[in-house]
């Protein structure tokens, strides 16, 4: 029913936790595709140590996280693909929640859940308008503007395989916001379904952010928008939200580069 894609690059100390969280799901009809993107640590050996026929390991030369995720999408056997980073984890009800959204909103192109961010020594819980329950967002971009942050993250969403392939998958060669760009590309074409249940834990480590990157960072979503017909964008019902979201993207890029 679901293909789980886990990109792996030098996350040997964490991959067992991620895999264990998948195997502990209340919904068990899945396969796991771990794409080892040229790791130099023991992460691949840790994966091989799991005695479960549903886990597949694909190894490739280092090409970046976007290429690893795209490789996993291509290898997926299921019609629905869920993503989990190697140093994050799911709570037991994640897949059950995603499948519930899929049943409620079969025409959606994205299914996401709320999540927690775990910093060393503290927890930040991200919950978006919990009292509204499962729903189709009236505007994905409006939701981001009103919330002031991503309402789901790279380890708390799933999408149909045909949708992922149809929008071209993840942009290659980007150092930042490759996941937000993918979601934006999908949201321009499809409804987005959302559950406010916290089903994923994002572990914030220094290696997860752009600290130490010396080249100029650009926001690839803005680059993508510049390739689309302006009349098409201006004719959207949520064009004002889209404008405001683009402003957020520019400010975020400026902040990161400073």
How is this structure best described in words?
By secondary structure, the protein is an alpha/beta fold. It is built from 10 helices and 10 strands. Strands 1, 2, 3, 4, 5, 6, 7, 8, 9 and 10 form a 10-stranded mixed sheet that branches. Strand 1 (2-8), helix 1 (15-23) and strand 2 (30-37) form a beta-alpha-beta unit. The termini are far apart. The mean pLDDT is 92.
Search tags:
single chain, 10 strands, 258 residues, alpha/beta, 35% helix, ten-stranded mixed β-sheet, 23% strand
Taken from the alpha-carbon principal axes, the silhouette is globular
Count of strand segments: 10
The main sheet comes to: 10 strands, mixed
First CA to last CA: what distance? 44 Å
Question: Given the helix and strand composition, which structural class is it?
Answer: alpha/beta
Radius of gyration: 18 Å
Overall pLDDT score? 92
Instruction: Quote the beta fraction.
Output: 15-25%
User: What fraction, in percent, of the residue positions are helical?
Assistant: 25-40%
Order of helices and strands: EHEHEHEEHEEEHEHHEHHH
**What is the helix tally?**
10
């Amino acid at each position: 029913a679901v293909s789980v894609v886990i990109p792996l690059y030098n996350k040997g100390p964490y991959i067992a936790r991620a895999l264990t969280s998948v195997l502990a799901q209340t919904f068990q009809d899945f396969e796991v595709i771990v794409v080892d993107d040229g790791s130099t640590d023991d992460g691949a050996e840790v994966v091989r140590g799991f005695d479960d026929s549903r886990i597949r390991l694909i190894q490739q030369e280092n090409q970046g996280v976007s290429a690893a995720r795209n490789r996993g999408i291509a290898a997926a056997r299921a019609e629905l693909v869920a993503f989990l980073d190697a140093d994050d984890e799911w709570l037991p009800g994640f897949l059950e929640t995603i499948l519930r959204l899929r049943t409620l909103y079969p025409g959606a192109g994205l299914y996401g859940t709320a999540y927690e961010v775990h910093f060393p020594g503290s927890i930040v819980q991200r919950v978006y308008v919990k009292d509204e329950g499962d729903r189709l967002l009236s505007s994905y971009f409006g939701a981001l503007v009103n919330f002031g942050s991503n309402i789901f993250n790279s380890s708390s969403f799933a999408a149909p395989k045909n949708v992922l392939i149809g929008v071209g998958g993840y942009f290659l060669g980007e150092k930042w916001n490759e996941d937000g760009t993918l979601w934006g590309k999908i949201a321009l074409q499809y409804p987005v379904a959302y559950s406010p249940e916290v089903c994923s834990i994002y572990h914030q480590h220094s290696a997860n952010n752009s600290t130490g990157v010396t080249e100029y960072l650009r926001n690839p979503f803005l680059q993508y928008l510049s390739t689309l017909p302006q009349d098409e964008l201006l004719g959207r019902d949520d064009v004002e939200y889209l404008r405001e979201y683009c402003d957020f993207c520019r400010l975020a890029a400026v902040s990161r580069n400073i």
